[in-house]
Amino acid sequence: MLTFLFVLITLTVPVLGSNSSQATATQSYDMEPELYMSTMEAAAPSPSVEVSPTAGICPQDNGKYRKIADATFLITCNKVIDRSWTDDTQETFAACIDACAKKPECQTVDYTPATKSCGYSKQNRRAELEPVGGAITHNARRATPPPPDEVKPKPIEDTTIKPDDKPKDDTCKPKPLPRPYTTTAKCPGDNGLVFTTSDGSTYKLLCSHHTDWVDTIGDRSTEPSWEACMEKCSKAPNCGSVDIGVVPKNAGNCVLFNKNTKESPKEDPECNTAVLVDPPPVEGIGAEDMPNVLCTTKCPYADGMSYASSYGETFRMDCYKRHGTKVIQATNANSFQDCMELCASMIPCHSVDYQERTKKCYLGSHHGKPTIDAVSFASAHSMGCAGACSSGACCGGNPDARKGVSVIPPEPDTSCNNQGLLYAIYTNINVPTSDLAGSKAWDAAFYKTQTPYAKGQTTAVGTVSDSIYENKPQVEDKIVVNHKGYLFAQQEGQYTFTAPVADDLLIIWVGPKAYSGWTRANANVDQVFQGWGDPDKEFKITLAAGSYTPIRIIWTNRIGPGSMAVKIVAPDGTVILDKDTKENPYFVTNGCKEGVAPGFAGWGGEP
């Protein structure tokens, strides 16, 4: 005979219409308490769930439900959502809740006892904000308490092995990935987790969020599920995120957004959002060594074969797989072959995951084969130098087989606190009387020997005269700002430097003369303000991938407020600097290794 053991959680619910101190109903459940939270709750404020028509006094009723006719409100003391669409005054918190219950559109209230202010909101959101100004304010929102008939007690499983039992073989069953992955896309339980589409693309799930309507791709469509909407995104070359409607008026509405959209998702109870992310690592994945075979890099034919890099390192290739281990660096590469070449050029790199659709190359230190199925990926791991091609005769004895490989180098070495450009601020003291003529005659070299009153390091270039990189100028209408450092070329080709309208003067030097010997006469760009219709001035220069090029940018202002901005565009059209750039990873003050991008002379003593 089997003995059953029940794990009980007691919920005390006052019986409506009875003496609340004596008349209670008790139910027992075998689930963890957090499973009873409403879909928006992260934790219960009290150990039991209590529903009462008299609840409405803080702090004693924190976490309780107030029952008014057909509506119930969850009470959260001393927290607010601060999203009122209208307000009035009510004598008590309970009266405020009851007033909301009578308004069909009202979902939430914030109540301040000191002023008796009752703020009504149409948004049903969990109260997480601290009251503004220190005033005690409480919140209540429409919420359904957990129904007691949802859960039934479960006995402990009998694990006694019976003679006729046969062991089950589940070795062929697919095993779901551990967190942060999920095989479903359900809110709120999967909020913040990562969902993998059929081609291996990974999306972070954000419940009750939407993306601002900019950079949409195509027309909206109606999809049967959030998963289907993400699958649609994975088939669109430039798709980076999706919105799916979740309320009756927009249920199933699927909108795709460009992967270059800079807007961050906003909270919205009517939508769910999924954002394309780099695949998170999966801990504990092992690997085995594989044999060495030569020599194609195109999937599916490269599966199980080897690639001998131009650096002498051999890689074992696996199609439709990825490693899932920690990524050293994520960058771009034009092909799977380029991705492996990039790995071979870096000593810590031993593995790559490459997605052809996005051209993303994930560099890792894993020594073994990949274990995660991903049909849009190709992966490779290092086999070392044993068996690599010798004397440059790679791939069937052709010494030119590796020529023309376009490897996109990584970002510059910033291990020595060198990211950004150096800047110095001076008072503009060598200005002739005439504004326009004064700007044309202004002597830049004069400031080589001047001592600045403020200096620092910035990862972006662009400012206004009343606050220069968080520095207050001594005289707002007499300013000189001198920037210097290096631009790291991530790719080979022609870079374009543009000076838009400058108020009052913007000068740019690119190349060795930016390091020393700079004057107005040898500047590459010299933009003098003559009016707001001034055309942009440009300078183009071809740079080698991985090179460091000295640059210098000087801006001056006089007579009233002013501003400046610079635009730099890479060969492939990527804007790597403009007025909206917050941080540019390709600027460095100097190199971290001897002989690479030597440091500039100090301010006040420049050649």
Automatic annotation (TrEMBL):
Cleavable signal peptide: 1-17
Limits of the PA14 domain: 437-582
Keyword list, A-Z: Signal
Regions of compositional bias (Basic and acidic residues) in chain numbering: 149-173
InterPro entries given in the database record: GLEYA_adhesin_domain (IPR018871), PA14/GLEYA (IPR037524), Pan_app (IPR003609)
Region span, Disordered: 131-179
Pfam families associated with the record: GLEYA, PAN_1
Protein's name according to its UniProt entry: PA14 domain-containing protein
Organism: Microthyrium microscopicum
